[in-house]
Amino acid sequence: MAAPPPEAYSRVTNPERFAPLHEIAAKLLNRLERDFDVERAEGYGLDLELEQRYHLARPTVSLLPHDPGAAPLVLAFSSFPGLHFRFGRWCMLAFPSCGCDACQESAEMEIDRLTSIVNDVTAGRFREAVRIRPDGDVWLESEFWSADERSTRQSFRLDPDRAQQLTAQRDRLSHDWNPWPKRA
Known about the structure:
The protein is an alpha+beta fold. It contains four helices and nine strands; from the N terminus they run H-E-H-E-E-E-E-H-E-E-E-H-E. It is 25% helix and 29% strand.
């Protein structure tokens, strides 16, 4: 298969192909609230760092498990249309992750990826950490692993100002998150 032309990396000819993500995510949030012992909040200003990055299409939703050892989830609906999640304290992921023509992402692919990650989070198969390396660089790391032991890891180097914010604000720099408690 030939590589996409360079201009495809900066072009999004059909962003509406991701419109089903909003409806699927709304249904997913409703299911999570029904199945798990969580507190739901909706509105603007629930996660300023996440919300300030995008033009929002609707209010942000947060699900906070009643077990403080289980990872919270915050979802911002962008007008792209796309979804921007915070899992736990620091892990932020976008669906789609890019959206350009070259990446050839589809709503179906992103729904599968989203469902897999949410299942990992609710099952307690998620960890994240802020790591300070010997050279002084600070990295944000996260890992999700599925029931079949396959894992997805990501690591991002943080700029010094952001690194200082994260390390100064937290008493813990790593979290191995618990499964979400089921609703009785």
